[in-house]
TrEMBL record:
Catalytic reaction list: 5-(methylsulfanyl)-alpha-D-ribose 1-phosphate = 5-(methylsulfanyl)-D-ribulose 1-phosphate; 5-deoxy-alpha-D-ribose 1-phosphate = 5-deoxy-D-ribulose 1-phosphate
A Pfam family reported for this protein in Swiss-Prot or TrEMBL: IF-2B
Record-given protein name: Methylthioribose-1-phosphate isomerase
Site keyed Transition state stabilizer: positions: 157
Organism, as annotated: Thalassorhabdomicrobium marinisediminis
């Protein structure tokens, strides 16, 4: 891979991020040295995509621990509590952020020997990073089992290498199908307002030589009605226990268009994105972002000055529109409450076997 969105540089306690705000015009790397800088980078979407922000947050906790390595135990605990709070407040919808912070907290919260904390947190952050790579590969392997040889995809937002540590989820499936020799074509929703499809997913698919076309978001129903689209596949920021899926705004529209055109609609979801504590989509907090994202493109006004705008960053696709949720433990099918619970049991059994 010619680029890596997120990388921990251990010698300098630095988190290196590709600046996703300026892609694809510039490939600029930023080096972040404090938890506050990482929280800001998550909030302003320098780093984005549910799995990537979870990994970034884990390294934000590590940075706090390393800066207080020589401090008394209580100071270290209070620094970690503060870092945890700042990172939790950076974005509300993607559950991976909270999942990764919970994993880190399980290491630091009841630590009996604070001197060992930086090393233990380093191991945990690296494990979260490595797990993401393995999980993404397993998701692609599950998806490949159901794809025809010639396959035309519809995709929303960016769910590839830039949104994760390595391969990606939904876009990773598209890339893996291409690399496995399928005859692949992908329609990419441009994904207003921030244009992750046009800017980031196209950048990635060009890098990997995958045939595709960017389309405006409003074109999806027309394209599904007039072209042979085999499958729509998207990522997710949070899946409720009943299979309702929160993902980038416009996902619900795409699912409706797919339903009306008999195109199966799939969601690629690491188990870390499934929130069993949230019963259904109504209970998911939807981030609302600055209205300037709607009234401007790349800082240039496109609406009248002072035009009001409303900018929910995510929507919830009801489970009834979803054909399958592709996890690293297999493909959950309706009724999702049961099949997702079965996936969780499979995961718990696998984890027991590993111990
Ligand atoms: C594997 S990424 C999954 C989701 O996080 C992705 O589909 C998405 O909605 C990203 O939103 P973003 O606001 O760009 O962070």
């Amino acid at each position: 891979m010619a680029f890596r969105a997120i990388e921990w540089l251990d010698d300098s306690d630095t988190l290196q991020l590709i600046d996703q705000k300026v892609l694809p015009q510039q490939v600029r790397y930023l080096e972040l040295n404090t938890t506050a800088e990482i929280a800001r980078a998550i909030h302003d979407m320098t780093v984005r995509g549910a799995p990537a922000i979870g990994v970034a947050a884990a390294f934000g906790i590590l940075q706090a621990a390393r800066s207080f390595a020589d401090a008394p135990a209580e100071e270290m605990q209070s620094a970690l509590q503060q870092a945890d709070a700042v990172l939790r407040a950076s974005r509300p919808t993607a559950v991976n952020l909270f999942w990764a912070l919970d994993r880190m907290k399980a290491v630091w919260a009841d630590a009996t020997d604070p001197a060992n904390l930086p090393a233990a947190l380093h191991r945990e952050a690296l494990a979260i990073e490595e797990d993401d790579i393995a999980v993404n590969r397993a998701i692609s392997a599950e998806a490949l089992k159901i794809l025809p040889q010639k396959v035309t995809f519809f995709h929303h937002c960016n769910t590839g290498s830039l949104a994760t540590v390595d391969l990606g989820t939904a876009l990773g499936i598209i890339r893996s199908a291409h690399e496995a020799g399928h005859e692949v074509f992908a329609y990419l929703d441009e994904t207003r307002p921030r244009l992750q499809g046009a800017k980031l997913s196209s950048f990635e698919l060009l890098e990997f030589g995958v045939p595709h076309a960017i389309v405006v978001d409003g074109a999806s129903a027309h394209i599904m009605r007039t072209q042979d689209v085999d499958i729509a596949v998207v990522g997710c920021d949070r899946v409720a226990a009943n299979g309702d899926v929160a993902n980038k705004i416009g996902t619900y529209n795409l699912a409706l268009a797919a339903a009306d055109n008999d195109v199966p609609f799939y969601v690629a979801a690491p188990m870390s994105t499934i929130d069993f504590a949230t019963p259904d989509g109504d209970a998911i907090e939807i981030e609302e972002r600055d209205s300037a994202e709607v009234t401007e493109i790349n800082g240039h006004a496109i609406a009248p000055p002072d035009a009001p705008a409303f900018n929910p960053a995510f929507d919830v696709t009801p489970n009834r529109l979803i054909a399958g949720i592709i996890t690293e433990y297999g493909i959950a099918r309706p009724p999702f409450t049961d099949s997702l619970a079965a996936m969780r049991t499979a995961q718990q059994n696998a984890l027991k076997e590993d111990v």
